[in-house]
Design brief:
three-stranded antiparallel β-sheet; 414 residues; 13 helices; globular; Prot_kinase_dom; 33% helix; Ser/Thr_kinase_AS; five-stranded antiparallel β-sheet; transferase; 12 strands; non-specific serine/threonine protein kinase; alpha+beta; serine/threonine-protein kinase
Length: 414
């Protein structure tokens, strides 16, 4: 119960990574999860037997599979946990827009039956996605007309921009295809983020905003942070940021398709998220917009934090103390309450708050609330009341895991 947990808060821990891992460098595929009894589990790449050598202890399908006569399921299964405590991810390589289009089609023809009558359905990720579709409907036609006016430099270095894999307030992201110079039969893929100028934004502010984001993202080198390669201008003068391509899509689309994630799968992604957050904070950088849409995945389940458009440096390399920050930014369900109430606050703490909300979204397929403001959101008010009650707050207590109760109590502390 919440009333029986430790008294550590977000301000005490700054980053929750030390509650979930013992630090150290994580490899690109090391997403093994700590077991309940806190013993160390060897990373996935250390497990020598192949997939066909053993039967998985549990399987999370990307679509409902047929397992007959006790035979080992095919490699199309999304998540496989083995008896020795290790696991493997096998995410289908599909573009985000294709996945979302498939889900929309299923929703329209009635294949996916959603009951939106309950009060908590207003917090479901599916409900939020449908609202987002309504807001973005007018942008679809414009985005499909073509990619950036490619300059010789962009084409020569990274190939031609083609299909759309994501879109947001900043603009859109396309895949760039370049023939592999070492093997003409294959191609190298890059993600190219096309920036748009905001309304009323001067060319000087536009340039400053993009170069600031690029300077932050390109300076970070960690397996759980996206690798930013270049910043170029196209023939129209618009900027394009080139990044590594993650074929597994993003965490938001994965949870939306799955409904919710099982414990082992959610814990693996969460551990990787906390490793990335811990590294950023050690480097003096706060993200300020952590959410499932900004967490990309490889087909092998490696998670990478992306989109540093709201990122800021709270401590320079020669400084020991962190600077406080101010201002409201990010997506409403993940914004910490102090951003609404305090003139200044620790940017690390708001990142940590967002990680707790993200974990609950993975496990339940819902947002905890729409906005963390007591007078404006009935669900947040219920959360505050539940924390005072001996029985705790039901959505978190229903996870039935003492370790995660304690962590979420620390992270979602007011």
């Amino acid at each position: 119960m919440f009333s029986q947990t430790s008294g550590k808060t977000r301000d005490d821990i700054k980053t929750g990574a030390r509650l979930t891992s013992e630090g150290g460098n994580a490899s690109d595929t090391d997403c093994s999860i700590p077991p309940t009894q806190e013993k160390e589990i060897p990373p996935v790449q250390d497990r020598k037997p192949s997939l066909t050598d053993r039967k998985p202890a549990s399987i999370t399908p990307s679509s409902t599979p047929e397992v007959k006569n006790g035979t080992t399921p095919t490699i199309n299964q999304r998540f496989m946990a083995f008896p020795d405590g290790t696991h493997e991810h096998h995410l289908r390589s599909a573009k985000r827009q294709e996945k979302l289009s498939d889900m929309l089609r299923d929703l329209l023809v009635g294949k996916r039956k959603e009951d939106h009558t309950g009060e908590h359905d207003r917090l479901s990720l599916m409900s939020s996605w449908v609202d987002q579709l309504k807001n973005e409907k007018e942008k679809l036609a414009t985005d499909k007309k073509g990619g950036p006016n490619s300059t010789a430099t962009l084409v020569e270095k990274y190939g031609k921009c083609q299909e759309i894999i994501g879109r947001g307030a900043f603009g859109i992201v396309r895949i760039s295809h370049k023939v592999d110079p070492k093997n003409g039969q294959s191609e190298q893929l890059y993600a190219v983020k096309e920036f748009r100028r905001r309304p009323q934004e001067s060319p000087r502010k536009y340039h400053k905003r993009l170069t600031s984001e690029f300077c932050i993202s390109s300076s970070l080198r960690h397996p759980n942070v996206i690798h930013t390669l270049d910043l170029l201008q196209d023939a129209k003068g618009d900027y394009c940021e080139v990044m590594e391509f993650c074929a597994g899509g993003d965490l938001y689309t994965l949870v939306l398709a799955a409904g919710k994630l099982d414990v082992a799968e959610a814990d693996c992604y969460f551990k990787q998220l906390m490793r990335g957050v811990e590294y950023m904070h050690e480097m003096g950088v706060a993200h300020r917009d952590l959410k499932p849409e900004n967490l990309l995945l490889t087909t092998h389940g490696a998670l990478k934090i992306t989109d540093f458009g709201n990122g800021e440096c709270f401590r320079m390399a020669w400084e020991k103390e962190a600077h406080m920050t101010c201002g409201l930014c990010g997506s409403a369900p993940y914004i910490a309450p102090e951003e609404y109430t305090d003139k200044e606050f620790d940017p690390r703490a708001v990142d940590v708050w967002a990680t707790g909300v993200i974990y609950m979204a993975m496990r339940t397929g819902r947002h905890l609330w729409r906005v963390a403001k007591k007078d404006e959101d009935e669900f947040f008010e219920k959360y505050l009341e539940g924390r005072k009650d001996e029985g705790g707050y039901a959505p978190i207590e229903n996870l039935h895991r003492v370790s995660i109760w304690k962590y979420l109590h620390s992270v979602l502390h007011l």
